[in-house]
Amino acid sequence: MTTAPKSEKDRVIVFDTTLRDGEQCPGATMTFEEKIEIAEMLDDMGVDVIEAGFPITSEGDFQAVSEIARRSKNSVIAGLSRANPKDIDRCAEAVKFARRGRVHTVIATSPLHMRVKLNMTPEQVLDLSVANVTRARNQIDDVEWSAEDATRSEMDFLCRIVEAVIKAGATTVNIPDTVGYTTPEEYTRFMRTLIERVPNSDKAVFSVHCHNDLGMAVANSLAGIAGGARQIECTVNGIGERAGNAALEEVVMAMNVRNDVFPWWNRIDTTMLTRASKLVSAATSFPVQYNKAIVGRNAFAHESGIHQDGVLKDASTYEIMRPEMIGLKKSSLVLGKHSGRHAFVHKLEEMGYKLGANQLEDAFVRMKALADRKKDIYDEDIEALVDQEIAAAHDRIKLTSLTVIAGTHGPQRATMKLDIDGKIKIEEAEGNGPVDAVFNCIKALVPHEAKLELYQVHAVTEGTDAQAEVSVRLAHEGRSMTSKASDPDTLVASAKAYLGALNKIVMKHQRDEPAQAAS
Ligand SMILES: CC(=O)SCCNC(=O)CCNC(=O)[C@H](O)C(C)(C)COP(=O)(O)OP(=O)(O)OC[C@H]1O[C@@H](n2cnc3c(N)ncnc32)[C@H](O)[C@@H]1OP(=O)(O)O
Ligand SMILES: CC(C)C(=O)C(=O)O
Among the four residues 39, 127, 160, 365, which has the most C-beta atoms within 10 Å? Predict the structure, then answer.
């Protein structure tokens, strides 16, 4: 969903640099095919300018930028270049295949960078900038000039150089916060002063490019727009040098959700944001932080009971945007130790269960107990728990407690307390292994002739804290009775599964007895 257009002067151009600045961070290198796929997706999503790479970097980067340019549909395709003829020419050659190509040329303007890194005087930097913008403009109509480390540059010099590059033909002037140093108020003032003081500032679009070293890249980008800029340079998932760049999904949704505060619009189809995030994460192998704004897996997930109850009554209690706006089907209610009954009942209904009040209360208590011991509660856990609740509703023999001593120095020993028809009985037994000790305890507490035919264990979900699901089959008087039980403790699950099968035998006897007496 795109924000309804207002006027052209309020439109923010979205410039995505995932494939250039995003790729610059250690470990994020993408293959040719991955870059093509991402560029096509950004084009479809409504990104105005795609910075596809830095063509002088390598033959591979040149090829990727050229191919993205060839395949471009609506987006302008930009390439980066330093302020030297070789970079400019190579870049112009790569982007010339696009419907609209852009040469983006950068040079540092801060005293520190000019002196230490470039070993140039401000006048040399100014002359070089003018010469290279002119060179680029002789090859292409769309030229962006960037003042690297602009926010640590002197305002008087910046005004002079910006005026000169616009005169030389720069159509976009980018004022980057290269090292993530500025603050929102400062950046608004900085941008406003620059635009006001440069006499020909109306001949170019001013742009922001903010890094996240102090966690303010998104806030600073919006502040720069408030100061008069109309292009935001950003990346999907906020990837980029060091702590990254302003995240595309965050700046776009901030403008959409708080349009009262950020009264500008853009052309992004926000329903593609989730897909874009997943694609970039997969291509770079950079996981998305769980609590990342907009696209983190917890951004629309609720675990606490009070929040879940609120969301069930009206999602806007705890959600400031609808999940569908960013291409997510729905928000999720995650069951855990902080959950309440409303969410538990809702989950059971979704899974097709309808329990009576007592069964529900028992299952809820058991879910809480499970959540205290297990990190994630999956649907399979709930299923196992409720099935067991239903199956055990009429059991005459119930497990009350179990302690097992196991380890290298046998024999293993179990102590078990059972509730048999309302009476508590306790017994201790040894065994050849902990499971044998547990089953011997049951035999001591409930003497019976049934023979163990099958004992099987498997994990309900993944991880070392997964619940064990145990199946037990007992044979008695020519019939077999099978029962399943689950618990994070394999021995408790074993005891419950055995007792489940035993209860079935007892129940069968109970049903058969009156019939036998009558015959
Ligand atoms: C703020 C930014 O994100 S800018 C983009 C940064 N991205 C990258 O650097 C990724 C791609 N870079 C590369 O592949 C390489 O660095 C290249 C191909 C650009 C250059 O490689 P090399 O020629 O081996 O130079 P190297 O990277 O070691 O040093 C950079 C040189 O460029 C000069 N330089 C740096 N910025 C600029 C600039 N904007 N304009 C002109 N020259 C510059 C430096 O002063 C240095 O020159 P020197 O060799 O005379 O000292
Ligand atoms: C090339 C420029 C825009 C840059 O990446 C920066 O200054 O951070």
Answer: 39
Backbone angles phi, psi at 350, to 5 degrees: -60, -35
Entry pTM = 0.84
Q: How far apart are CA 506 and CA 397, in angstroms?
A: 9
pLDDT per residue as tens digits for the range 469-496: 999 999 998 888 888 888 889 999 999 9
Closest CA to 367 of 387, 354, 386, 393: 386
| ipTM of predicted complex | 0.97
| Claim to verify: residue 407 and residue 476 sit in the same structural domain | yes
Residue 293 lies in a domain: no
Element (H, E) at 452: strand 451-459
Q: Is 106 in the pocket of ligand 1 (CB under 6 A)?
A: yes
Mutate to test the pocket of ligand 1, among 82, 87, 112, 175 (most ligand atoms within 8 A of CB): 82
Residue 168 alpha carbon to ligand 1 centre in Å:
23
Helix count and strand count (H, E) for the chain: 16, 16
Of the residues 365, 389, 413, the one at which a domain ends? 389
Q: To test ligand 1's pocket by mutation, which of 21, 30, 57, 181 has the most ligand atoms within 8 angstroms of CB?
A: 57
CA of 118 relative to ligand 1 center, distance in Å: 10
- CATH code for the domain of 367: 1.10.238
Task: Say yes or no: 137 and 274 in one domain.
Answer: yes
Question: Is position 368 within any domain?
Answer: yes
Cα separation, 226 vs 519, whole angstroms = 93
Strand ranges (E), 396-464: 397-405, 412-420, 423-431, 451-459
Q: Which of 16, 17, 21, 104 to mutate to test the pocket of ligand 2 (most atoms within 8 A of CB)?
A: 21
| C-alpha closest to that of 169 among 196, 198, 193, 145 | 145
Q: How does strand 172-177 pair with strand 205-210?
A: parallel
- With beta carbons less than 8 A apart as the criterion, state whether 166 and 201 touch: yes
Cα 285 to ligand 2 centre (Å): 23
My answer on whether 233 and 324 are in the same domain is no
| Domain-located, residue 2 | no
Query: Rounded distance, CA 71 to CA 33, Å?
Result: 13
Half-sphere exposure of 85 (CA within 13 A, CB side): 3
- Claim to verify: residue 364 and residue 499 sit in the same structural domain: no
Which ligand does the CA of 209 lie closest to?
A: 2
Range(s) of the domain holding residue 373: 301-389
Q: Tell me, what CATH number does 17's domain have?
A: 3.20.20.70
Render pLDDT for 18-30 as a digit per residue (tens, 0 to 9). Answer: 999 999 999 999 9
